[in-house]
Design brief:
With about 725 residues, the protein is of the alpha+beta class. The chain contains 21 helices and 18 strands. The strands form six sheets. A five-stranded mixed β-sheet has the order 2-1-3-11-12, with helices on one face. The chain has a five-stranded antiparallel β-sheet with strand order 5-4-16-15-14. Helix 14 crosses helix 17. The longest helix has 30 residues.
Length: about 725
């Protein structure tokens, strides 16, 4: 916690220590402080204090911790984050009244003495001796500044803060030595400026600019006489003289400062009397710190920025160093977040999934070819209250997300792309029966997978019987077609294609090499799926997601930021062929409800086993997005459920995630170019299967091979992770 003087007075032990310290320092001065020898200080008691000469000559002044401002791509503010709320300003940007008031009440002879005030020490020693306690202190503004530097360097470490403020002779002598250095090197004007920027004014405000904003909602340069006197009075005891919680004490203290200014001829007595008659008029601005204050639902994106910063060696050689740099703040971070896209995502989520629904939804949109994250949101707001969460449902576990969600049939295009790269024709037919065992054995990267006759998969309904070609099988999402496809091709090409497309498990584990991977049984995140599909829109080139455009530090210098890494995941012809297949999904397949009006789009629906999750992942040439709907704790199956006020007998990827994607993309792309998706001709066998069944064939009843990669428990059914333990709490995060 930040160091705060409690204002409750000193204990007898503390008073004695302070009195002793003042007395010793007085003796030191009288003995001839200019002689830099420990003996001259009269402090020869063994172990009581470091030798004066042994104290390092240079005071290490850490950068003052300040606010960091996070901006969207248009320069609009997303949020301010800080360890300490402070904005450093030049002395010329501070009211003349505050400069005079702080000197008058804290160190009236500031411009007359050096590092210490001999007259002040003698006066304090005499006064304290008479009272038997500590009725007066003797620290100059310079000494107070040095102590504040110690506190700032300690940060929020309670042990270091205690060391920086301990009432010992040793610390006082250190403070004194550094004060001499500071007076010599900085001069009075700079010392006063630094002091007013570093000192604590209560209410989480550090420095005069933050204090002016907190109490009066104005800049430090605009403070009036009475406002300046009030703030100057707070410094001695921020809790005791807090004008918010103790207005009477604060008023008395303010009037003491005004009278002191009059006595020193900084103002006239008439000015002091007039100001003292005025009641305190506050215009309090409450602290707005952290991602919880982010605009347009961007709290999760804001938190993602922090995770990126703390995880990238560009900002420090280890996490501790990066965390210290983040806490020091003072940065302006320009991000990739497009405000139009972000608003559209949040509006669509709010329309289709309510905050208190039994399930949640998350959506992410990225830009093909750049990897820029344009928007990221979810139906449950960022926070700690009911139906809120701080878990980012759009990202992998190591970036603040959960364990991910089975993407179902949205994984099938990865299998199709791998097969096409292996030379499989898009017109390849398979018998595709309603139900079939997994073919065995199947080649993996490390050998063979072998199943048993009881390892079965099936389509969504009995009317789905082949033969099918790839286009119709993709449009109707035929499970048995894709199981036959991966079995012929082998699992290794599919694994390698997923890796090249950046598609990985949300928990960071390697993809399990089992035939059921074609049905999307391994947990992924929306950001992963959106970025992977962006490769189809980008001629087969995958670009890793990025969230930061630039960072300017407190000194105005540009920092090096992480850049996207692009690589070829597949040939352009393969990407264009997948475009053809996935356009069929939104034109007359399972994703018709997600199709966009007036612009080319392509995509794929998906549901997980038992409908714990439903997806739509799709793209245009200039945006790729993924939408997930489900229970983050993986407990609620989406049967006989109402979502966003709409009842569902069972949820499909087409009827809930699809419309969310459609509305989010429509708003995000409004007024923007509508280029065509490149495609190639793909014919289907002439076969009438009775039309589209209106389902994403959701991964409903298949049973991946027992004992192969842990896809299901012995005896049937899925093996599920301990979801409540992964997410924690009761807020559905």
């Amino acid at each position: 916690m930040p160091n705060k003087r409690d204002g409750g007075g000193l204990s007898k032990t503390q008073a004695a220590a302070k009195f002793l310290g003042v007395s010793v320092l007085a003796g030191a001065v009288l003995a001839g402080l200019a002689l830099p020898a420990a003996g001259a200080l009269g402090l020869a008691a063994k172990g009581s204090v470091e030798g004066f000469d042994e104290i390092p000559a240079n005071l290490k002044t850490p950068p003052l911790s300040q606010r960091t401002t996070i901006l969207d791509a248009d320069g609009g503010e997303i949020a301010k984050v800080y360890s300490r709320d402070r904005t450093v300003v030049d002395l010329k940007d501070m009211s003349p009244y505050i400069r005079k008031a702080i000197v008058a009440i804290e160190d009236a002879r500031f411009y007359e003495h050096g590092a210490i005030d001999l007259k002040g020490i003698l006066r304090a020693v005499n006064k304290n001796a008479q009272s038997g306690g500590v009725s007066q202190g003797a620290s100059t503004l310079t000494q107070q500044y040095v102590k504040n530097v110690f506190v700032e360097e300690a940060g929020d470490d309670p042990d270091k803060v205690a060391q920086a403020t301990q009432q010992t002779i040793g610390r006082k002598v250190k403070e004194l030595k550094y004060a001499i250095q500071v007076e010599k090197e900085l001069g009075k004007r700079r010392i006063l400026q630094n002091y007013l920027n570093i000192t604590f004014f209560g209410q989480q405000a550090y420095g005069i600019e933050a204090a002016a904003q907190r109490y009066f909602s104005k800049h430090a340069k605009d403070l009036s006489l009475e406002e300046s006197a009030l703030l100057a009075g707070i410094v001695q005891s921020p809790s005791r003289y807090d004008p918010v919680s103790a207005p009477n004490e604060a008023t008395r203290r303010r009037n003491t400062v005004l009278q002191r200014m009059a006595d020193l001829k900084d103002i006239t007595q008439a000015q002091a009397d007039a100001a003292a008659k005025k009641p305190i008029k506050l215009a309090v601005s409450r602290p707005k710190n952290g991602c919880i204050t982010a605009t347009h639902g961007a709290g999760f994106f804001c938190d993602y920025i922090r995770k990126v910063f703390l995880g990238d060696r560009s900002f420090g050689k280890n996490r501790e160093e990066r965390l210290k740099r983040w806490d020091q703040g003072g940065m302006t971070i320009h991000t990739t977040l497009d405000p139009q896209t972000q608003k559209s995502i949040q509006a669509s989520l709010s329309d289709h999934v309510y905050q208190d629904d039994p399930v949640a939804s998350a959506a992410t949109i990225v830009e093909p070819g750049t990897g820029k994250i344009l928007g990221m949101g979810q139906s449950r707001p960022y926070g700690f209250g009911p139906n809120q969460t701080v878990i980012n449902l759009s990202v992998d576990h190591n970036m603040g997300g959960g364990a991910g969600y089975q993407p179902g049939s949205t994984f099938k295009p990865v299998i199709a792309a791998a097969a096409l790269e292996q030379g499989t024709s898009p017109e390849q037919e398979y018998p595709s029966p309603y139900r079939m065992p997994y073919p065995s054995p199947v080649q993996t990267c490390n050998g063979e997978w072998r199943g048993s006759p009881s390892d079965m998969t099936q389509n969504e309904n009995r009317q789905e019987v082949g033969p099918y070609g790839m286009k119709e099988a993709t449009a109707k999402s035929v499970n048995t077609y894709f199981v036959q496809l991966i079995s012929d091709m082998g699992i290794c090409p599919a694994v390698k294609m997923a890796q090249k497309m950046g598609i990985e498990r949300a928990d960071g584990k390697p993809l399990q090499q089992v035939p059921s991977m074609t049905l999307g049984v391994q947990e992924m995140s929306p950001l992963t799926m959106a970025s992977g599909y962006a490769a189809f829109a980008n001629g087969g080139e995958y670009c890793s997601p990025v969230a930061i455009e630039s960072i300017t530090d407190a000194r105005g210098q540009q920092l090096r930021v992480p850049q996207t890494s692009c690589r070829s995941a597949m040939s352009k012809r393969t990407a264009d062929t997948v475009n053809t297949l996935l356009k069929g999904v939104v034109e007359d397949g399972t994703g018709k409800e997600a199709g966009l009006k007036g612009r080319d789009s392509a995509g794929k629906t998906g549901t997980s086993d038992s409908r714990y999750a439903a997806w739509f992942v799709g793209y245009t040439p200039n945006a790729a997005g993924a939408v997930w709907v489900g229970d983050p704790q993986h407990k609620r199956k989406m049967y006989n459920i109402t979502i966003g006020g709409v009842p569902h007998e069972k949820v499909y990827g087409a009827d809930t995630p699809g419309p969310i994607w459609r509305d989010a993309m429509t708003g995000a792309l409004a007024g923007r170019p509508a280029p065509a998706l490149p495609t190639v001709p793909v014919s289907d066998p002439v076969k009438d299967k009775g039309g589209d069944q209106g389902d994403d064939k959701g991964r409903g009843k298949h049973r991946p091979g027992r004992g192969h990669g842990g896809d299901n428990k012995p005896g049937g059914g899925w093996h599920l992770p301990d979801w409540p333990g992964l997410f924690g709490g009761t807020n559905g995060g």
